[in-house]
Amino acid sequence: MDFYEVVKKRRSFRVYKPDMPEKEKIERILDAARLAPTWANMQGVHYIIVQDSEKVKAVWKAVGQRRKFAEAPMFIVGIIREKGSGMNANGEKYYGVDFGICFEHLILAATAEGLATCWIGFFNENKIKKILSVPEDYRVLGLTPLGYSTKEKGSVSDRKSLSKIVHWEKF
Ligand SMILES: Cc1cc2nc3c(=O)[nH]c(=O)nc-3n(C[C@H](O)[C@H](O)[C@H](O)COP(=O)(O)O)c2cc1C
Questions:
Q1: Which tens digit of pLDDT belongs to each residue from 12-32?
Q2: What residue ranges in 29-81 does DSSP mark as E strands?
Q3: What is the position in ligand 1's atom list of the atom closest to the CA of 123?
Q4: Model pTM?
Q5: Strands (E) located in the chain
Q6: 156 CA closest ligand 1 atom index
Q7: Which domains does the chain show, CATH number per domain?
Q8: Which of 23, 42, 130, 141 is 20 to 30 A away from residue 80, measured at CA?
Q9: Residues with CB under 6 A from ligand 1
Q10: Which residue numbers in the chain have pLDDT < 70?
C-alpha cells in the first residue's frame, strides 16, 4: 500500500473479529516500530505482546472505558523508562516523544498489513503493570488492540484544513 494511502486508511477501530493476526504480520509490524528514530538512537521502547486470552481479558478490564470496545484477540502494549530517552536543552524529557514515534510506526505498519488498531491512552497504568509484570521504572504510555475489524471505515476526514494549522514564515 502506498504511504499516503496508509496514512488515510488508518482509523481507530473498536470492534474486532476473534481471529488472531498472523505471526509474520505481527513481526513485520514490530520491525517497523524497531526502525523508528529515537532521541540519540536510544531505542528505549519495549513492546509486550499479549495473546493469552485470560491476560487479554484482564487488560481490557484495566482499560475499563465506558466507550464500547468489542474484545480484540490480542494487544500490543508499549512501555519505556523515563531514563530510556534523552533531555532537551530546557531539561524536557523526550521519552514521550520517542514513544509516540515508535508507536505510530507500529500503528501505520499494522494498517499497511490490513490490520485494525486503536491507540489507547486511557487506562489504569498500575493495573496493566501488574498484569504484565512490568518493572517499576517503566511507564506504560500506550497500548493497542490488534486484529481484524468487523467493519470497514472510511478514510480520515474529520481534520482541520491546512489553512488553519500551517503558517508560512510567521504565526
Ligand atoms: C495518543 C492517543 C490516545 C488515544 N486514546 C484513546 C483512548 O484511550 N480511547 C479511545 O477510544 N480512543 C483513543 N484514541 C483514538 C482517538 O480518539 C482517535 O485517534 C481520534 O478520535 C481520531 O479518529 P481516527 O483515529 O479514527 O482517525 C487515542 C489516540 C491517540 C493518538
A1: 999 999 999 999 999 999 999
A2: 46-50, 74-81
A3: 8
A4: 0.96
A5: 46-50, 74-81, 116-117, 138-147
A6: 27
A7: 13-152 (3.40.109.10)
A8: 23
A9: 11-12, 65, 67, 118-122, 156
A10: 66-68
